[in-house]
Fold each of these.
Amino acid sequence: QVQLVESGGGLVQAGGSLRLSCTGSGSIFGFDDMGWYRQGPGKQRELVATITRGGQTNIAYSVKGRFTITRDNAKNAVFLQMNSLKPEDTGVYYCNAVPRYDTWTYWGQGTQVTVSS
């Protein structure tokens, strides 16, 4: 059974930093694409950043230059370093991943990020 567990959310002042982590389990061969999405209050879920197994990244324009996505394939983990946080970055951040040789996308339970002004 594939599971994704996020950690690292919290409350931070504008201009501060947070680092989110997500660790996957239950996939014998690891994961292909992994990524982060977020859902702000009253908003739809949106892409933040994705990374392929080979390290190619796709970063949303709204966070480009402030957020960095990385991964550790040996640990089935993906990370999101968030700098220069803004109040509009507030929301629940979800990790997702596609197990290798699978087509289903799995989601974590989400971690709350709150940026105060």
Amino acid sequence: QVQLVESGGGLVQAGGSLRLSCAISGSILDINVMGWYRQAPGKQRELVALIRGDGSIKYIDSVRGRFTISRDNAWTTLYLQMNSLKPDDTAVYYCSADSGSDTDYVRDWGQGTQVTVSS
């Protein structure tokens, strides 16, 4: 099992920046995909960005060019640099870790960190 703890959320004006961090501990060697998800009030949780063990990265269209996902080489910290923030980015942001294969995996979640973007 993997333990995840997010930090770095807060209140920012539109156009501003925040950097989220996710501290990773536990069975780190089993992780093959890590991601950032978000959930806005009244909406389903959605994928924001993910990074695989081979370094490949995926973003949803609404954040591409504004957000950057990265990790340290030891898989101990995952980051999400968020620039040019918009009010629509307001949500609770969650860090996730998938352990196992692409078809048979366990997903662990952090507790979430609130990001609020004012207009």
